[in-house]
Design a protein that fits this description.
This protein has eleven helices and six strands. The chain is of the alpha+beta class. The protein folds into three domains: 243 residues, no CATH class; 97 residues, no CATH class; 90 residues. The chain has a six-stranded antiparallel sheet, with no helix packed on it. Helix 8 packs parallel to helix 10 and helix 9 runs antiparallel to helix 10. The protein is flat and about 100 Å long. About 6% of the residues have low confidence.
Length: 460
């Protein structure tokens, strides 16, 4: 069996590498098409552009490697079945389940490697890629402006700073609405600009940012002479920020990490911190509620004779009740927010390992599926691959949404598709060897070796 094991593994290497390179290349070309024009227009050196695309590879690999495993298994077993090699093995009394066993072991090794890759390599590359995007974005604020956020814009080589906020931004037209600009370009003078709308453009040399603002006013104050406050209204005003995007400045430091940029230990630590916070909020809410009850009881007990006073006065709650109600609503909002964050981080942990074990599921499902349709050829391979890919990743995305909203536990939502595909895979796998038991067991190895030698001879 060792000879056939080596032969079977070698038969999978070619289709696997082809599918892996092709799928990764398609996604990379899509990234290249979307980003290259913007990157090339900034005058960035070639090594920075190459670094940008290299950092985008790990996230692509995490998706395309399981896909490549499925394509290789479907193609190889479909070819073996169409060339009657599977029939020859059955006639020789070979248990087809034992034939798949080396691939199961190989898939386990791939799953272990991907678990490490998704847990440590992928988050670090995502974080570095995001940091590089932010640094590149500083050379052009049009790339990184966010709605309803304070966006920092550096001009004049970083010596002048502006902070821009807009309620709504339309990237295709570079239009902004409800604009507020905090101008800190001149030391000692604070200038705040309000505008109903505006438009952003660059000069022909792509070095200066031009902000055309409409229907607003400017508030200016000299901090050295606070009595000199000025306010100026305008119908149209052009602000020129010189030296924006003249060079790329790499920022040092770890920076903020989102859930996709955290390693598994970081995610688990963050979940533990949030659970502690959740417990503290619950305890704080219980203390506030108890204090309110005690205050209400003390307030009513202070009334000597309820029949001798006005009924409205007796019905009125103590002054602390309204404040406590607001506090409890605030505690509820904080609890909901904390629970959502816990679910979000737990989803990311389970998703890393669920995707990593997908190759094992695809091997158990793909091998018996390909044998059942031996005459399908490449068309069946492509159709089956696309169907399984679509089902798996759509289910994964849907499960992520359901878990974030609290409808499903993160573990259930992320592992559901693995289980749903693994159950029919195991059933099909268990039926592969039912008809292979025969009394002709003495000549199994000789027949198998003869089959392999014949295959090699035909190849030469």
């Amino acid at each position: 069996m060792k000879v056939f094991t080596r032969y079977l593994l070698r038969a999978h290497i070619g289709p696997f590498l082809f599918a892996f390179v092709a799928l990764t290349g398609v996604i990379l070309i899509n990234t290249l098409a979307r980003q290259l024009a913007e990157l090339a227009g900034k005058g960035l050196p070639m090594d920075v552009i190459l670094h940008f695309f290299v950092l985008s590879l790990p996230s692509n690999i995490a998706l395309t490697l399981p896909m490549a495993v499925l394509v290789a298994v479907l193609y190889t077993f479909s070819q073996l079945a169409s060339e009657n090699e599977i029939s020859a093995l059955r006639a020789s009394g070979i248990d087809l389940r034992r034939m798949v066993a080396p691939l199961v072991v190989a898939a386990m090794l791939v799953a272990g490697g991907m678990s490490w890759f998704n847990s440590f390599v992928l988050p670090e590359s995502n974080h570095e890629w995001k940091q590089l995007m932010v640094d590149i974005g500083r050379t052009s604020p049009l790339l990184t402006l966010r709605e309803q956020s304070v966006n920092e814009i550096r001009a004049d080589g970083g010596r002048a700073k502006y902070y821009l906020q807009a309620t709504r931004i339309d990237p295709p037209t570079n239009r902004l609405w409800d604009v507020v600009i905090y101008d800190r370009s001149q030391g000692g003078i604070g200038r705040t600009i309000y505008a109903d709308s505006g438009r952003m453009n660059f000069n022909p040399a792509q070095t200066d940012l031009l902000l055309t603002l409409y229907d607003g006013h400017i508030n200016e104050i000299n901090f050295n002479q606070l009595q000199e406050f000025q306010q100026l209204g305008f119908g149209e005003q052009v602000i020129r920020m010189e030296g924006v995007g003249t060079e790329l400045e790499r920022q040092e430091g770890a920076g903020y990490r989102s859930d996709r940029e955290m390693t598994v230990p970081m995610l688990n630590e963050r979940v533990a911190q949030l659970r502690d916070r959740h417990r503290n909020i619950r305890e704080e809410a219980a203390r506030d509620a108890l204090a309110d009850v005690e205050a209400r009881l003390a307030g009513r007990a202070a009334i000597p004779d309820p029949d001798a006073v006005d009924r409205d006065e007796v019905a009125d709650p103590p002054p602390s009740a309204e404040r406590t109600a607001r506090l409890l609503r605030s505690h509820e909002s904080r609890l909901n927010s904390t629970e959502r964050q816990i679910r979000q981080y737990r989803v990311e942990v389970h998703k890393k390992f669920a995707i990593a074990t997908a190759p094992l599921v695809f091997v158990l499902l793909g091998a018996p599926l390909a044998i059942r349709f031996p005459g399908g050829g490449v068309g069946v391979v492509i159709a089956a691959s696309l169907g399984v890919f679509a089902l798996y990743y759509v289910g994964l995305i849907g499960g992520e949404t359901l878990a974030a909203e609290g409808y499903l536990d993160p573990a259930v939502s992320m592992w559901a598709m693995n289980v749903l595909l693994l159950v029919p895979g195991i059933w099909l796998f268990s039926r592969m060897g039912r008809e292979t038991h025969t009394a002709r067991s003495g000549s199994r190895l000789g027949t198998l070796l003869e089959l392999v030698r014949r295959r090699r001879k035909d190849g030469e």
